[in-house]
UniProtKB/TrEMBL annotation:
Protein name, as recorded: Alpha/beta hydrolase
Organism ancestry: Bacteria, Bacillati, Bacillota, Bacilli, Lactobacillales
Length: 287
Protein backbone atom coordinates (compact mmCIF):
# COMPACT_ATOMS: atom_id res chain seq x y z
CA UNK A 1 0.00 0.00 0.00
CA UNK A 2 1.20 3.47 -0.90
CA UNK A 3 0.93 5.60 2.22
CA UNK A 4 0.45 9.34 2.27
CA UNK A 5 1.96 10.67 5.46
CA UNK A 6 0.94 13.89 7.17
CA UNK A 7 4.39 15.13 8.11
CA UNK A 8 2.95 17.68 10.50
CA UNK A 9 1.61 14.88 12.70
CA UNK A 10 4.66 12.67 12.78
CA UNK A 11 5.63 13.78 16.28
CA UNK A 12 2.42 12.20 17.55
CA UNK A 13 2.81 9.16 15.34
CA UNK A 14 -0.09 10.28 13.18
CA UNK A 15 -0.83 8.94 9.71
CA UNK A 16 -3.97 10.66 8.50
CA UNK A 17 -4.78 8.34 5.64
CA UNK A 18 -3.61 5.99 2.94
CA UNK A 19 -4.07 5.92 -0.79
CA UNK A 20 -5.13 2.41 -1.81
CA UNK A 21 -2.73 0.88 -4.31
CA UNK A 22 -4.73 -0.86 -7.00
CA UNK A 23 -3.07 -3.81 -8.68
CA UNK A 24 -2.83 -3.02 -12.36
CA UNK A 25 -2.52 -5.41 -15.25
CA UNK A 26 0.78 -5.92 -17.02
CA UNK A 27 1.37 -3.52 -19.92
CA UNK A 28 0.48 -4.85 -23.32
CA UNK A 29 2.37 -4.48 -26.56
CA UNK A 30 -0.17 -1.92 -27.76
CA UNK A 31 1.03 0.52 -25.14
CA UNK A 32 3.82 1.61 -27.46
CA UNK A 33 1.13 3.63 -29.21
CA UNK A 34 0.31 5.61 -26.07
CA UNK A 35 1.58 9.13 -25.64
CA UNK A 36 1.34 10.83 -22.29
CA UNK A 37 1.12 14.58 -22.52
CA UNK A 38 3.70 15.24 -19.85
CA UNK A 39 5.59 18.47 -20.39
CA UNK A 40 7.89 18.21 -17.36
CA UNK A 41 11.28 16.55 -18.00
CA UNK A 42 12.29 13.70 -15.70
CA UNK A 43 15.91 13.59 -14.53
CA UNK A 44 17.46 10.25 -13.50
CA UNK A 45 20.28 10.26 -10.91
CA UNK A 46 22.27 7.06 -10.26
CA UNK A 47 23.82 5.84 -7.01
CA UNK A 48 27.40 5.21 -5.90
CA UNK A 49 29.54 3.90 -8.78
CA UNK A 50 26.51 4.10 -11.09
CA UNK A 51 26.77 3.90 -14.86
CA UNK A 52 24.62 4.27 -17.96
CA UNK A 53 23.15 0.85 -17.13
CA UNK A 54 21.87 1.97 -13.72
CA UNK A 55 18.70 3.60 -15.00
CA UNK A 56 18.96 2.49 -18.61
CA UNK A 57 16.36 -0.28 -18.53
CA UNK A 58 13.95 1.80 -16.47
CA UNK A 59 14.13 4.60 -19.02
CA UNK A 60 13.48 2.11 -21.84
CA UNK A 61 10.41 0.79 -20.00
CA UNK A 62 9.11 4.30 -19.43
CA UNK A 63 9.45 4.98 -23.14
CA UNK A 64 7.54 1.77 -23.93
CA UNK A 65 4.76 2.87 -21.55
CA UNK A 66 4.50 6.18 -23.41
CA UNK A 67 5.65 8.26 -20.45
CA UNK A 68 8.25 10.24 -22.38
CA UNK A 69 11.34 9.84 -24.53
CA UNK A 70 15.00 9.64 -23.72
CA UNK A 71 16.15 12.87 -25.30
CA UNK A 72 19.45 13.61 -23.56
CA UNK A 73 22.38 12.12 -21.68
CA UNK A 74 24.24 14.63 -19.51
CA UNK A 75 27.66 13.66 -18.19
CA UNK A 76 29.02 15.79 -15.35
CA UNK A 77 32.80 15.92 -15.16
CA UNK A 78 34.73 16.10 -11.89
CA UNK A 79 35.28 19.85 -12.39
CA UNK A 80 31.54 20.41 -12.89
CA UNK A 81 31.70 20.73 -16.67
CA UNK A 82 28.59 19.39 -18.40
CA UNK A 83 28.76 17.29 -21.56
CA UNK A 84 25.28 17.23 -23.07
CA UNK A 85 24.25 14.81 -25.80
CA UNK A 86 20.78 15.43 -27.20
CA UNK A 87 18.15 17.98 -26.27
CA UNK A 88 16.98 18.07 -22.63
CA UNK A 89 14.26 20.61 -23.46
CA UNK A 90 12.10 18.17 -25.43
CA UNK A 91 8.60 18.03 -23.84
CA UNK A 92 8.37 14.93 -21.68
CA UNK A 93 12.13 14.40 -21.85
CA UNK A 94 13.68 11.51 -19.93
CA UNK A 95 17.16 12.82 -19.08
CA UNK A 96 19.88 10.47 -17.88
CA UNK A 97 22.55 12.10 -15.73
CA UNK A 98 25.93 10.42 -15.30
CA UNK A 99 28.64 11.45 -12.86
CA UNK A 100 31.95 10.92 -14.65
CA UNK A 101 33.66 10.51 -11.26
CA UNK A 102 30.99 8.24 -9.86
CA UNK A 103 32.53 7.56 -6.45
CA UNK A 104 32.84 11.11 -5.19
CA UNK A 105 31.20 12.48 -2.03
CA UNK A 106 27.67 13.77 -1.49
CA UNK A 107 29.10 17.29 -1.28
CA UNK A 108 30.71 16.99 -4.71
CA UNK A 109 27.49 15.62 -6.19
CA UNK A 110 25.47 18.42 -4.55
CA UNK A 111 27.61 21.03 -6.30
CA UNK A 112 27.31 19.16 -9.60
CA UNK A 113 23.52 19.07 -9.26
CA UNK A 114 23.47 22.83 -8.79
CA UNK A 115 25.44 23.26 -12.02
CA UNK A 116 23.05 20.88 -13.77
CA UNK A 117 19.86 22.57 -12.60
CA UNK A 118 21.28 26.03 -13.25
CA UNK A 119 22.18 24.98 -16.79
CA UNK A 120 18.77 23.45 -17.45
CA UNK A 121 17.04 26.65 -16.43
CA UNK A 122 19.33 29.30 -17.87
CA UNK A 123 20.55 27.58 -21.05
CA UNK A 124 17.59 25.37 -21.93
CA UNK A 125 14.68 27.39 -20.46
CA UNK A 126 13.51 24.44 -18.36
CA UNK A 127 11.59 25.91 -15.43
CA UNK A 128 10.44 22.64 -13.83
CA UNK A 129 11.77 19.08 -13.57
CA UNK A 130 10.95 15.83 -11.80
CA UNK A 131 13.74 13.69 -10.35
CA UNK A 132 14.16 9.93 -9.84
CA UNK A 133 17.18 9.05 -7.70
CA UNK A 134 18.61 5.72 -6.55
CA UNK A 135 20.66 5.02 -3.43
CA UNK A 136 23.40 7.59 -2.74
CA UNK A 137 22.01 9.74 -5.55
CA UNK A 138 18.90 10.32 -3.45
CA UNK A 139 20.97 11.61 -0.51
CA UNK A 140 22.74 14.02 -2.86
CA UNK A 141 19.41 15.19 -4.29
CA UNK A 142 17.98 15.86 -0.83
CA UNK A 143 21.17 17.62 0.29
CA UNK A 144 20.95 19.74 -2.88
CA UNK A 145 17.31 20.60 -2.15
CA UNK A 146 18.18 21.57 1.43
CA UNK A 147 20.56 24.17 -0.02
CA UNK A 148 18.99 25.28 -3.29
CA UNK A 149 15.44 23.91 -3.38
CA UNK A 150 13.88 27.37 -3.18
CA UNK A 151 16.42 29.18 -5.35
CA UNK A 152 15.20 31.02 -8.44
CA UNK A 153 18.51 30.40 -10.19
CA UNK A 154 17.75 26.74 -10.91
CA UNK A 155 14.96 24.61 -12.36
CA UNK A 156 12.32 23.97 -9.72
CA UNK A 157 12.02 20.32 -8.68
CA UNK A 158 8.30 19.52 -8.68
CA UNK A 159 8.43 15.85 -7.67
CA UNK A 160 11.12 13.55 -6.31
CA UNK A 161 11.14 9.74 -6.36
CA UNK A 162 13.74 8.08 -4.14
CA UNK A 163 14.65 4.38 -4.43
CA UNK A 164 16.50 2.55 -1.66
CA UNK A 165 18.15 5.69 -0.30
CA UNK A 166 20.33 5.50 2.86
CA UNK A 167 19.22 8.83 4.32
CA UNK A 168 20.58 8.03 7.79
CA UNK A 169 23.71 5.99 7.00
CA UNK A 170 27.19 7.02 8.09
CA UNK A 171 28.52 5.85 4.71
CA UNK A 172 25.99 6.52 1.96
CA UNK A 173 27.91 4.76 -0.83
CA UNK A 174 29.57 1.40 -1.33
CA UNK A 175 27.01 -1.35 -1.68
CA UNK A 176 27.95 -4.50 0.16
CA UNK A 177 29.09 -2.85 3.40
CA UNK A 178 27.53 -3.89 6.67
CA UNK A 179 23.91 -2.73 6.86
CA UNK A 180 23.50 0.22 9.20
CA UNK A 181 20.61 0.14 11.67
CA UNK A 182 19.29 3.22 13.45
CA UNK A 183 15.76 2.49 14.68
CA UNK A 184 12.96 4.96 14.10
CA UNK A 185 10.74 6.32 16.85
CA UNK A 186 7.66 8.51 16.47
CA UNK A 187 9.98 11.48 17.02
CA UNK A 188 12.60 10.45 14.46
CA UNK A 189 15.67 8.20 14.32
CA UNK A 190 17.05 7.05 17.65
CA UNK A 191 20.49 8.10 16.40
CA UNK A 192 21.20 10.66 13.68
CA UNK A 193 24.32 10.80 11.50
CA UNK A 194 26.06 14.18 11.01
CA UNK A 195 24.82 14.45 7.42
CA UNK A 196 21.25 13.66 8.49
CA UNK A 197 21.44 16.37 11.18
CA UNK A 198 22.85 18.88 8.70
CA UNK A 199 20.08 18.28 6.16
CA UNK A 200 17.48 18.49 8.92
CA UNK A 201 18.83 21.87 10.05
CA UNK A 202 18.44 23.22 6.51
CA UNK A 203 15.24 21.43 5.47
CA UNK A 204 13.34 24.71 5.33
CA UNK A 205 15.14 25.54 2.09
CA UNK A 206 13.34 22.61 0.44
CA UNK A 207 10.45 24.08 -1.53
CA UNK A 208 7.10 23.35 0.14
CA UNK A 209 5.78 22.71 -3.37
CA UNK A 210 8.11 19.76 -3.95
CA UNK A 211 6.33 16.41 -3.47
CA UNK A 212 8.06 13.15 -2.54
CA UNK A 213 7.54 9.45 -3.21
CA UNK A 214 9.94 7.41 -1.09
CA UNK A 215 10.33 3.72 -2.02
CA UNK A 216 12.17 1.23 0.19
CA UNK A 217 12.85 -2.48 -0.23
CA UNK A 218 12.43 -5.21 2.37
CA UNK A 219 13.63 -8.68 1.41
CA UNK A 220 11.65 -10.19 4.30
CA UNK A 221 14.66 -12.36 5.13
CA UNK A 222 15.12 -11.11 8.66
CA UNK A 223 17.45 -8.20 7.77
CA UNK A 224 14.72 -5.53 7.57
CA UNK A 225 16.56 -4.18 4.53
CA UNK A 226 16.96 -4.39 0.77
CA UNK A 227 20.27 -6.13 1.32
CA UNK A 228 22.23 -2.86 1.46
CA UNK A 229 19.99 -0.22 3.05
CA UNK A 230 17.83 -0.75 6.12
CA UNK A 231 14.13 0.07 5.87
CA UNK A 232 14.52 2.47 8.80
CA UNK A 233 17.31 4.39 7.08
CA UNK A 234 15.25 4.71 3.89
CA UNK A 235 12.05 5.75 5.68
CA UNK A 236 13.87 8.30 7.84
CA UNK A 237 13.23 10.74 4.98
CA UNK A 238 9.93 11.44 6.76
CA UNK A 239 11.83 13.39 9.39
CA UNK A 240 13.85 15.46 6.94
CA UNK A 241 10.82 17.17 5.44
CA UNK A 242 8.51 19.91 6.58
CA UNK A 243 5.15 20.60 4.97
CA UNK A 244 5.86 18.79 1.70
CA UNK A 245 3.49 16.19 0.28
CA UNK A 246 5.02 12.82 1.11
CA UNK A 247 4.17 9.24 0.11
CA UNK A 248 6.05 6.10 0.97
CA UNK A 249 5.98 2.54 -0.31
CA UNK A 250 7.82 -0.55 0.93
CA UNK A 251 8.12 -3.29 -1.69
CA UNK A 252 8.77 -6.84 -0.53
CA UNK A 253 8.97 -9.15 -3.55
CA UNK A 254 12.14 -10.85 -4.74
CA UNK A 255 12.86 -7.74 -6.80
CA UNK A 256 12.99 -5.64 -3.63
CA UNK A 257 16.78 -5.98 -3.45
CA UNK A 258 18.78 -2.78 -3.58
CA UNK A 259 19.99 -3.19 -7.15
CA UNK A 260 16.60 -4.39 -8.42
CA UNK A 261 14.40 -1.57 -7.15
CA UNK A 262 14.72 0.17 -10.51
CA UNK A 263 13.86 -3.10 -12.30
CA UNK A 264 10.60 -3.70 -10.42
CA UNK A 265 7.19 -3.41 -12.11
CA UNK A 266 5.49 -2.52 -8.81
CA UNK A 267 7.93 0.37 -8.53
CA UNK A 268 7.14 1.36 -12.13
CA UNK A 269 3.43 1.50 -11.32
CA UNK A 270 3.98 3.64 -8.24
CA UNK A 271 6.22 6.07 -10.10
CA UNK A 272 3.81 6.23 -13.04
CA UNK A 273 0.84 7.25 -10.92
CA UNK A 274 2.92 9.67 -8.85
CA UNK A 275 4.56 11.46 -11.77
CA UNK A 276 1.99 11.10 -14.53
CA UNK A 277 -1.31 10.58 -12.73
CA UNK A 278 -4.34 8.78 -14.11
CA UNK A 279 -2.95 8.84 -17.63
CA UNK A 280 -0.25 6.41 -16.56
CA UNK A 281 -2.81 3.76 -15.63
CA UNK A 282 -3.48 3.18 -19.32
CA UNK A 283 0.03 1.78 -19.71
CA UNK A 284 -0.93 -1.09 -17.39
CA UNK A 285 -4.45 -1.78 -18.59
CA UNK A 286 -5.31 -4.52 -21.04
CA UNK A 287 -6.56 -3.26 -24.35
Amino acid sequence: MLKKINLGLLTTGGIIGALAWHKLAQPSAKNNELTIKNQVPTVFIHGYAGTRLSAGLMIKRFESYGWGQKSAVITIKADGTLAIRGDPAVPGALIQVLFDSNRMSVMHQTNWLWRLMNCLKNHHSIEHVNVIAHSMGGVSVLNYLSKYGSSNQVSHVDKVVTLGVPFNDQEVGRDGKEIEYRPLTKYGPLDMTPLFKNIKRHRYFISPETAFLNIAGDLKNGTASDGSVSVDSALSLRYLLGTQTYYELVVTAKHASHSMLHENKEVDRAIGLFLFGKQAKRAFEKN
